[in-house]
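Escalated from tier 1: coenzyme A holo job.
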Amino acid sequence: MSTEPVPELREEIADKLRSAGLRRAIPQPGWAGRLAAFDARIFGVDAWPAAVWKDVFSGPGRYIVYVRDGGGITALPDIAAVGGINVGEQADILTLAVAPRYRHRGLGSLLLRELIATARREGAQAVFLEVRSREAYAQAFYRSHGFIAIREVKNYYADDSATIMSLTLKPRRCGTAFDGGSATGTAAT
Ligand SMILES: CC(C)(COP(=O)(O)OP(=O)(O)OC[C@H]1O[C@@H](n2cnc3c(N)ncnc32)[C@H](O)[C@@H]1OP(=O)(O)O)[C@@H](O)C(=O)NCCC(=O)NCCS
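Tier 2 regenerated the structure:
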């Protein structure tokens, strides 16, 4: 499985990250503690602890981070954004978060587009995700990228339901959507 940026986004990623003083990286097992701390600041009770972050590196998920390098040769980078996806015919977004100080600059959109394009490159026909039902902003963010809400799972979280959202990936050239886009949103990018 390639960990290179998808060719169609390579320049955009390089430009945007350079202007934000960041770089793209594939997270390393030694970053588990740092990823867990980042996750805890953003997701609170829903955050994955360091033990889970250690495990994800041996699993099938694909993770991308945008980081700012720390000082010194051995310093760990600061995490600015984290995205993860399980690829396959039906891909699942596992996590997507941008640190508050880096929000509203298009980094979340860029990372989401990277995840979607990665899923497409690996043969996905649709991308799914779940989000807290009360998280109206996150749902609007995903809707702006073509996702639609397809169902709600009651009591998914201790204190909230989950809204399942999906996006059907159209073939890039010459053809129709795989399922006509009836049950999910559609994207041609
Ligand atoms: C949802 C989330 C990932 C969005 O990240 P982000 O980097 O702020 O996303 P973007 O910058 O691409 O888009 C967000 C907004 O910034 C705007 N924007 C994008 N580029 C911009 C730029 N260059 N200048 C100003 N605004 C910009 C977008 O239009 C969008 O506007 P909106 O608030 O009116 O919708 C982020 O808010 C987050 O991490 N939230 C907490 C975790 C979460 O909810 N994750 C999703 C569920 S798992």
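The helical segments are 10-19, 32-43, 50-56, 107-121, 136-143.
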